[in-house]
Amino acid sequence: MAAYPDDLHYTKDHEWIRVADGVGAVGITDFAQEQLGDVVHVQLPRLGEKFEAHDTFGEVESVKTFSELYVPVSGEVIELNEALADAPELVNNSPYSDGWMIKIKIGKPSEVDSLLSASEYEDFIESQKEE
CA-CA distance, 114 to 30, in Å (whole number)? Predict the structure, then answer.
């Protein structure tokens, strides 16, 4: 499996979004979870909270550090991944499926077009490593 699935859109803050029928599932990338190390806690927003693109929607805490989470597009939180409360390690073990964090009803679908494709995100990661 590719490190960065092609059916996702990515941000330079290392979040991804999978869009289906106007709803986006959001999580952090494999690169992000590797940088964090073992995730021990994920703080998520409340159902019904509304965010503008790039707002902070929560944070992830690992044994090494903690990192804020940024929503890729504007929208309203309609579902939380409750499994993360008891099993935050899902973010490490399965960042693109079981480790998703929130689902949002997308408010401005055009914002998705400004996100990175898998290959653009991969290029971005490579450019960061070179600095």
Answer: 21
